[in-house]
Structures are given as structure tokens and as C-alpha cells.
């Protein structure tokens, strides 16, 4: 599946092949190392996220409205109640932002989330679409003044870090006998 998006994540991830049942674990090692965002980025993301706190339900709704509007091809992957899904996504982003101070806790959480995404039939090339949508949802919710160039760079670094860990864990699922339920 190809998406017509601006290149938003590093080339190694954008060009990574689709996950296949036969992908050897070795491929994980060919990925560039996942980079932890710097302290300026962490601080900026944590400060902007605080502004989303009072409008979390709206932010979740905007996110999925934007996602399905621009990428209707992923709509059928979402089978659960969408209000629940909105809450789960926002709670995970909340955790992902707050636990940037505790990567030892955050990374296993993201790895487990990445592995669950194999069951949801998520492909590596879906990640830029979700990034694009998250950025647009934040810009809409917070306004361009808050989501200025520095804030966008900070969120971009944090998203790439989350996605890098999730994708790495997703690749690890490609062991014989795992991840049956995929394209
Ligand atoms: C940083 C990126 C992402 C985050 C933080 C995230 C977060 C979540 C969370 C918290 C859930 C709830 C279920 C669970 O905890 O296992 C979920 C489910 C799901 N996500 Fe993601 N996700 C991300 C990327 C993606 C991408 C790239 C796709 C591809 C379209 C995707 C598709 C789905 C689907 C299909 C479900 C299941 C919905 C259902 O049960 O109906 N996610 N995601």
C-alpha cells in the first residue's frame, strides 16, 4: 500500500520492506539504531502535551477523523468501538510523552504495543500516515503558534523514536510460528 505523504520518517524506515511471514530477525539489525529525542525536544513535547490535557477527547476524535479522511484505506483495520479506540490512543500518547523521562519503562511498553500491531495488520509504511495525522491533529488542536517549527521538529523526533521501537519489535515478531494473521 503506498501513501502520498511528505517523507516524514527516516529513509531506512520509509524504504523498509513490508513485513512478511518469512522476514528473518536479521533484518532488524540492518535498521539504523532508534534515536532517543534530545532533552530540548522532550521538554517541548511535554510542555505542548500539557495543553492537550483539557481537550483529550476532542484530540482523539480529530485524529481519527483526519486519519480516515486522508487515508480511507486503513479504515477497515479498525474493528473496535471508535470512542474506545480514541481513548486508548490518547492514553498511550499520554504515557509515551510522560515516560520520556523513564525510557526503561517506556521502551518495553512500546515494544509490546508494536508487537500487538502485527495482529492489527499494521505495515511499516502505515507509520508515516499516522505521523502525518498526529502532526495535523496537534496543529489543529493547539494552533500554529504553539505548534511552531520547533514544536513540530520536537514532535517529529519523539514520534520517530516511538515508531522506531514499535517497528523494531514488529520485525522481531517475524520468527517462525509468530504473527500468522497478516498480509
Ligand atoms: C506511534 C504510533 C502508534 C501508537 C502510539 C498507537 C497506539 C495504539 C493503541 C494504544 C491501540 C489500542 C490497542 C492496544 O493497545 O493494543 C492501537 C490499536 C490499533 N492501532 Fe495503533 N498506534 C500507532 C500506530 C499505528 C499505525 C501506524 C497503524 C496503522 C494503520 C495503527 C493501527 C491500529 C489498529 C488497526 C488498531 C486496532 C484497532 C481495533 O482494535 O479496532 N496504529 N494503536
UniProtKB/TrEMBL annotation:
Residue ranges constituting the Globin domain according to the UniProt record: 28-171
Entry keyword DNA-binding: no
Pfam families assigned: Globin
SUPFAM superfamilies: Globin-like
GO biological process, one term: cellular response to nitrosative stress
Keywords: Heme, Iron, Metal-binding, Oxygen transport, Transport
InterPro entries noted in UniProt: Globin, Globin-like_sf, Globin/Proto
Name the UniProt record assigns to this protein: Globin domain-containing protein
Organism for this UniProt entry: Cyanidium caldarium (Red alga)
Amino acid at each position: 500500500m503506498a501513501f502520498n505523504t511528505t517523507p516524514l520518517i527516516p529513509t531506512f524506515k520509509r524504504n523498509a520492506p513490508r513485513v512478511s511471514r518469512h522476514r528473518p530477525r536479521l533484518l532488524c539489525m540492518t535498521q539504523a539504531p532508534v534515536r532517543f529525542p534530545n532533552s530540548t525536544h522532550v521538554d517541548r513535547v511535554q510542555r505542548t502535551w500539557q495543553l492537550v490535557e483539557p481537550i483529550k477527547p476532542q484530540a482523539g476524535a480529530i485524529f481519527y477523523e483526519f486519519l480516515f479522511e486522508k487515508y480511507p484505506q486503513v479504515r477497515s483495520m479498525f474493528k473496535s468501538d471508535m470512542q474506545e479506540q480514541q481513548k486508548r490512543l490518547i492514553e498511550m500518547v499520554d504515557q509515551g510523552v510522560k515516560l520520556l523521562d523513564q525510557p526503561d519503562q517506556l521502551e518495553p511498553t512500546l515494544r509490546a504495543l508494536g508487537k500487538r500491531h502485527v495482529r492489527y495488520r499494521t505495515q511499516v509504511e502505515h507509520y508515516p500516515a499516522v505521523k502525518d495525522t498526529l502532526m495535523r491533529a496537534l496543529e489543529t488542536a493547539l494552533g500554529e503558534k504553539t505548534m511552531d517549527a520547533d514544536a513540530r521538529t520536537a514532535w517529529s523526533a519523539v514520534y520517530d523514536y516511538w515508531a522506531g521501537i514499535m517497528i523494531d519489535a514488529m520485525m522481531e515478531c517475524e520468527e517462525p510460528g509468530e504473527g500468522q494473521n497478516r498480509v
